[in-house]
Amino acid sequence: MDENQYVVFYLDNEEYAIDIVKIHEINRLKEITITRVPRVPHFIEGIINLRGEVVPIINLRKKFGIDPKNISKESRIVIVKIFNKVIGLLVDSVSHVLTFETVEIAPPPEEIKISCDYITGLGKKGKRMIFLLDIEKILHMEEQQELQQMGA
């Protein structure tokens, strides 16, 4: 039986998930200060100091075109590694880890694949539909280059 574990998080009441092997850690924001950086793409919230390492923070609400929301006590930074760079993803909340068997994952409809190539599938649990994300595809090439210039 083939199965994968995913960390499930929320953006605007919708559930998204990232393969657990891509996630390094999940941080609350109470001890973390996000420092704003001038002249960066609108979806980059800023940078943080994570144990001496400068980590850019991407606000996934802004990146996905979802209305902005104030950071709350439920907000989390999901630390991932993309192309050998450590990056933080700001999400509304992280809920739990889910295991999906291969039969519970459907390919995204063609319309979604064209406009959102970072959605690799839809995880189905009962009536729930969870967007499965490919974190490497969330950033386009020019955005990766901008992050590299920031020192990430």
TrEMBL record:
<dbReference type="InterPro" id="IPR039315">
    <property type="entry name" value="CheW"/>
</dbReference>
<feature type="domain" description="CheW-like">
    <location>
        <begin position="3"/>
        <end position="144"/>
    </location>
</feature>
<dbReference type="GO" id="GO:0005829">
    <property type="term" value="C:cytosol"/>
</dbReference>
<dbReference type="GO" id="GO:0006935">
    <property type="term" value="P:chemotaxis"/>
</dbReference>
<dbReference type="Pfam" id="PF01584">
    <property type="entry name" value="CheW"/>
</dbReference>
<dbReference type="InterPro" id="IPR002545">
    <property type="entry name" value="CheW-lke_dom"/>
</dbReference>
<dbReference type="InterPro" id="IPR036061">
    <property type="entry name" value="CheW-like_dom_sf"/>
</dbReference>
<dbReference type="GO" id="GO:0007165">
    <property type="term" value="P:signal transduction"/>
</dbReference>
<protein>
    <recommendedName>
        <fullName>CheW-like domain-containing protein</fullName>
    </recommendedName>
</protein>
